[in-house]
Amino acid sequence: MSKVKNVCIVDDDELFQFVMRQHFERLDLVERVHKFTDGEQALNHIKSHLENPEELPDLILLDVNMPYMDGWQFMTEYARLSIPAGKHIRIYILTSSTHESDLQKAREFPSLSGYLVKPIGKNMIRELLVGAEQH
Amino acid sequence: MKIDHANNWWPAIADAIEEGYFVIDEHDKIVAYNQPALQILHLSPAILNDPACWHSQGMQALAAIASQKEAFSGKEILLEREDDTYTWLRVNGKPIITSLVKGYCITFTEIAYQEDKSGTYTPNITAEELKNLLAEVNRKNIILHATSIDLQQKIKQLREFNSIIAHNLRGPATALMGSTELLQDVREDADRDALLYHMKTSATAILSTLNDLQEMIDLQVSRHSGVVECDLETMVRQVWNLLRPQVVEKNAHLSLNLSVCTINYVKVYLENILFNLIHNAITYTRQGVDPEITVSSWQEDERVVLMVQDNGIGIDLKLHQDQLFRYKQKFHRGYESKGISLFKIRNQVRTLGGDIEVRSEAGIGSSFYVYFNNRVYTLQQDE
Q: How far is Cα of residue A117 from the mean position of the Cα atoms in its chain?
């Protein structure tokens, strides 16, 4: 099975970041994991690699509630970027919120691949990585 | 049997019915009436001979209806009589047009009156009583309005609770949950130590959020205790002294423009509001620009407004308006902030029936407006 090249975890929760990274390493399905603790950092990372599609993330796991730039603001800014044709970036919202209003908000962004409510178990992570999980 | 249409019976019948009536001609002159009309309105027959009688206190309300000369029925009016008593009347009106006369008939009965055993009417309400009742209604309306604002605030606060639970409690809790699954797989000591360290951080975050939530709820429960008259200038100067090290370090200047000198409030809350707003103003400053901080107060309708204005880095409200007062939200990198102070201020202010707003422009400065609702005391009295 081929590995996912670049995965970005955008979440200010250090424990979540650590747990996800550990799972990734154990599953051995990811080449590189990039850690960002707010939306702005992640956005800057993407902007600086727009010329180099190989380095752009293939999968982004995005928290909603973050300082400086939250998940929704990130999505708004992301929609304005011109991602190189042929590059497919899957973005999943990963949130602890079960509120209908958040789910509703997610529907405003067609570029989202899915909305997942934490906690995320090992099996869910595997599905995310092999791309079988479609919401 | 021959029915007597002549006038022989008519005066007796007119006085025997319960309704009072007046008939007026084209010139608004009263041309007929019955005894019940006089009884209901507490009038003497003499007054009806006066052409100006329609303008008397006891007749005005009827005159107003009659002047339209239209047919209507069942209109209810409150009538103030000549002797300062009040009564509710149900009134009908009808134009009378025959080949002989052209006029207007107005009939009325009392719809609420007290009748004692001897059959005499007693006025159902005096002017004084009505005045008191109106004052009471007015007072209740104010309380109702204040209560409705208070409820709206409470709903907002509950939504905020809900959001804090969804993000700030469920967040670290789900991370802890996720780490339990991982724990059994982690063998290396360094990884285990790191995992435990992060788990402890999450548990601490949950506890601190729970403490803040408890503080919010405590505030709701004990919110009316200890409202005193607070002298603004004294309090601002105290806060400024507390911040002396930063004031000196940044060469900050303070101006006061206090049209309202005192605010009735819980002293520690007002201190807390002033401290946090001034502290923010002196923290988020622009490099190379001496901080100029102005504290103003003024009366605006029924509210007292307190403004804390600075010439600091400002906030991009287009980006952050929604989150500015939210729990644990941060906007500026490189500053020590937990993102709690504005949240707590708004919660305190709203709990006591006020509100807080901000106007700001990135790179120019910010103005925070705190609205103190001085009507909160009526709520207290009624609860």
A: 13
Could you give the residue range(s) of every CATH 3.30.565.10 domain in chain B?
224-383
A interface test, pick of B164, B177, B180, B182 with most A CB neighbours within 10 Å? B182
Phi, then psi, of A27 in degrees rounded to 5: -75, -25
B358 touches chain A (CB under 8 A): no
Which ipTM value was assigned to this complex?
0.87
**Phi, psi angle pair for B17, to nearest 5°:** -80, 165
> A118 to chain B: which residues are within 8 Å by CB?
170-171, 174-175, 177-178
Instruction: Tell which B residues from 160 to 219 touch A, by Cβ distance under 8 Å.
Output: 162-163, 166-168, 170-179, 181-182, 185-186, 191, 194-195, 198-199, 201-202
What are the structural domains, with CATH classification, of chain A? 4-130 (3.40.50.2300)
Domain with CATH 3.30.450.20 in chain B: 10-123
Residues 6+ apart with CB under 8 A from A28: A3
- Are B166 and A121 in contact (CB < 8 Å)? no
Chain A positions touching B185 (Cβ under 8 A) are 22, 26
- Where in chain B is CATH 1.10.287.130? 126-221
Residue pointed to by tokens 């529907």: A107
- CATH superfamily of the B10-123 domain: PAS domain (3.30.450.20)
Give the pLDDT of chain B (383 residues) as one tens digit per residue.
Answer: 566 665 677 888 888 888 999 988 888 888 888 999 999 988 888 877 777 777 777 788 888 887 878 899 888 888 888 887 888 888 999 998 888 888 899 999 987 655 555 655 555 666 777 788 888 998 898 888 878 887 888 888 888 888 889 888 999 999 999 899 888 888 899 999 999 999 999 999 999 999 989 988 888 777 556 788 899 999 999 999 999 999 999 999 999 999 999 998 888 889 989 999 999 999 999 989 999 999 999 999 888 999 999 999 988 888 787 778 888 888 777 777 778 888 889 988 888 888 899 999 888 899 999 998 765 444 444 44
Note the Cα B139 to chain centre separation in Å.
Answer: 12
- Could you please state the CATH topology (level 3) that the domain comprising B224-383 is classified under: Heat Shock Protein 90 (3.30.565)
What CATH architecture applies to the domain B126-221?
A: Orthogonal Bundle (1.10)
| H helix intervals, B103-126 | none
CA distance B94 to B316: 68
**Residues of chain A that touch chain B, judged by Cβ-Cβ distance less than 8 Å:** 13-16, 18-19, 22-23, 26, 64-65, 67-70, 73, 95-99, 102, 118-122
Of the candidates A19, A65, A68, A21, the residue with the CA atom closest to the CA atom of residue A43: A68
